[in-house]
From TrEMBL, chain A:
Phylogenetic classification of the source organism: Bacteria, Pseudomonadati, Bacteroidota, Sphingobacteriia, Sphingobacteriales
Source organism: Sphingobacterium allocomposti
Residue stretches spanning the membrane: 37-57, 69-91, 103-122
Superkingdom of origin: Bacteria
Presence of the UniProt keyword Membrane in the record: yes
Keywords: Membrane, Transmembrane, Transmembrane helix
Protein name: Uncharacterized protein
TrEMBL record, chain B:
Origin organism lineage: Bacteria, Pseudomonadati, Bacteroidota, Sphingobacteriia, Sphingobacteriales
InterPro entries assigned: Metal_resp_DNA-bind_regulator, Tscrpt_reg_PadR_N, WH-like_DNA-bd_sf, WH_DNA-bd_sf
Organism, scientific name: Sphingobacterium allocomposti
Protein name stated in the entry: PadR family transcriptional regulator
Coiled-coil residue spans: none
Domain spans labelled Transcription regulator PadR N-terminal: 32-101
Pfam families reported in the protein's UniProt record: PadR (PF03551)
Domain of life assignment: Bacteria
SUPFAM superfamilies: Winged helix' DNA-binding domain
Length: 139, 122
């Protein structure tokens, strides 16, 4: 749990807010039939998440240079996205145009990408001492 | 001509020292904490004074280094009452940190205390 740094926690909170906002906006647009806005909103969501990841990633590295090739941030993004999305689907107000199949497909494809990332993360850990890059520990 | 040599010497010295000092901060922090537990400002003062001003460090850099060392468990901290305001974090070397320091000094510092090396240095 020592790798759960304050910048990572702040990123998780921002990501949950962004994802919740995205799900609400997406469902509203689909319900009202504004299909042309769906792609721009999705792009905006992706852009905001990318910028948040970059900002908090840099802060995280300044706080503690954990060498994980971005895996912690990816894992947090994956977990929060699916928890919020399935939560919205089951307990929120999804549009009739939103199908659970799309979420399941995202979970599987993204899950495979995450597994590949995890492989590189495990490889990278060989160059670390307790998650810190050997070359950065005493620099 | 002499001015030219002096300029070269200064530049070469600075380049050498910049490289040399990069890894030195760790040793100075260890020396500071080996003496006794200290809070960050005390560590910074120790480094500057004992290195006779050849080493300097920002508090933010020190905090970052100490966080790394705490993460790998060679340094720990305890909270103690400050003179005024909130409690201060007093950093200390853990058992692992003390062992690491001794091993490092034995392998990398003691060699400079050999008589033949000392005679060259003087």
């Amino acid at each position: 749990m020592k790798t759960l740094t304050p910048p990572l926690i702040r990123f998780a909170l921002v990501a949950v807010g962004c994802t919740a906002g995205f799900r609400v906006a997406l469902s509203s647009l689909l319900t009202q039939g504004h299909f042309n806005f769906v792609v721009p909103v999705a792009i905006l969501f992706g852009l905001v998440m990318f910028l948040a990841g970059r900002y908090f990633g840099r802060r995280d590295n300044e706080y503690l240079p954990i060498y994980d090739v971005g895996f912690r941030f990816h894992l947090v993004t994956f977990l929060q996205y699916h928890i919020v999305s399935y939560g919205w689907y089951w307990f929120g107000f999804p549009s009739v145009h939103e199908h659970i199949g799309a979420l399941n497909a995202t979970l599987i494809i993204w899950g495979i990408c995450l597994a590949v990332h995890a492989y590189y993360y495990v490889q990278a850990r060989r160059h670390t001492i307790k998650h810190i890059n050997r070359d950065e520990l005493f620099d | 001509m002499s001015k030219h040599i002096d300029t070269d010497l200064d530049e070469l010295l600075k380049a050498w020292e910049d490289t040399y000092k990069k890894g030195q901060l760790t040793l100075w922090i260890f020396l500071a904490l080996k003496e006794e537990p200290k809070y960050v400002e005390e560590i910074r003062t120790f480094v500057v004074e004992k290195s006779q001003g050849s080493m300097s460090c920002e508090e933010q850099s020190l905090y970052r280094v100490l966080r790394k060392f705490e993460h790998v468990e060679i340094v720990g901290h305890e909270l103690r009452k400050g003179n005024k305001g909130p409690d201060r974090k007093y950093y200390f070397l853990t058992e692992l940190g003390v062992q690491l320091f001794h091993r490092f000094v034995e392998r990398n510092i003691h060699i400079f205390f050999q008589d033949d090396i000392k005679s060259i240095l003087v």
